[in-house]
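Supplementary material to the annual report.
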Amino acid sequence: MIRPIPKLAWKGVIKRFEGRAVLDDLDLSVAPGQSLVIIGGSGQGKSVTIKTALGLMRPEAGRIELDGRDVVGLSEGARRKLFSRVGVLFQGAALFDSLTVWENVAFRLINADGVPRKQARERAIEALDQVRLAPTVAHRFPSELSGGMQKRAGLARAVVGRPEILFFDEPTTGLDPITAAAINALIIDQVKRLGCTAVSITHDLASARTIGDEIAMLHDGRIHWRGSAEDLSHADDPNVRRFVDAAGLSPVDVRAREIV
Amino acid sequence: MTATQAARAVAARPIRSLGRSTLAVVRTVGAVGVFAVRGVAAALTPRWFPNQLRRQLVTIGFFSLPVVGLTAVFTGAALALNIFTGGGRFNAEQVMPQIVALGITRELGPVLAALMLAGRVSAAIAAEIGAMRATEQIDAMRTLSTDPFRYLVAPRLLAATIMLPLLTVVADLIGVAGGWLVAVRVLGFNPIVYIRNTAAFLQAWDVGSGLIKAAVFGFIVALMGCYHGYNASGGARGVGRATTHAVVSSAILIFASDYLLTTVFTHAS
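Predicted assembly:
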């Protein structure tokens, strides 16, 4: 039986910082149309994993394949073309302070795709509507929005170009549980609507279970466990167990356990 | 370790640190050089962002007018007083208008305008781009298929290189006017004769050489702001460090290139 080509795959990827391997022979893939969530503690290489796929960091070794084609070391021009197939929601939304919300959402359309401003504004307002932001928000600046609204605007910017792959970097970090649930619902909604592949990184287990078809545990630069969201609670990998157990405790309990 | 080996290790320490410092300097010079070439290439080849260029022309040029004008008027006035006092020691007070004009157009106009721009613009560029780096806005820009060198760096390099010569023209006029004001109001010079002497003495090259210097200084000011901002790391502290480095390195490079250009112009004429 022929195995389908993964939409995105990391093959033997190594990335070091000052001699320390943050990604240590990483092997990971995501099938077309699937939503993969990478979980793991702080400093385990989750953000680096996404950044290597986006070409924002270059790995020392290994291949990163998009539709079977290696994208490591692409020229700036080739990478720009590749980015037209990708949407990213950054951790802090990374909206441009000097532009209004609609200009942020339409940034790619105006500056890369050459869409006229009037048409781009209409598409941006449409995208804002899809993430439940009113048209009145369009003319405000990012600094005038709450954290949750900024994340929504960031999501609208990520999906407005109808990407094939969406990356979510800690989509619910810093949000209250109600806003986080709303962002999770919007992510599921947008991924389904576009029929795209999604790769998310988070240490919010509730978010991981909600938005992921599959969950992978990254520890010490390698995937230690991989399975469905339902299997996560029954996983026997000690790193996963520690992570799942700690998620149900308060920070004080976690500290107490570490001391014991 | 024997005593001889220990002594050798101690003796080698300063040499090692000198080598490390030298390598760091070479690395930085190389990085700035590569950054400058990328910036110039982005500025001279499409795709351009005219809206960004327009915005920078206004921010760098128009909004710097007050600070450059004020600096020039006081410098011109102080220069006139100093030359009058100094020239009086060998009965040369009457050449004061010519020396003020020469000093302002060839040296003080471009240098002071550039230093003001280093403080106002280079710092602002480094802080803005540094904050964008710290909050992942530059990464976001790349993922939106837009080259930050074309969108952020090139418009600032172009705007500063174009606007500083224009600001220098203003500084020249206001600086000479400052000297004229002191000469007429305080030192009892004839206003018409002062202007006539200045106009008759000045040559096109006096002004032209100052404007060439200004264009080079403008490029330096924007380059240092962009380079340090773009390479900022370490959050708010890193942005602060980038701003300081941008201003200090701009000022040093302005003085160094001023000497270099003055030497070239002196030999050429």
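Residues 141 and 217 of chain B are 29 Å apart (CA to CA).
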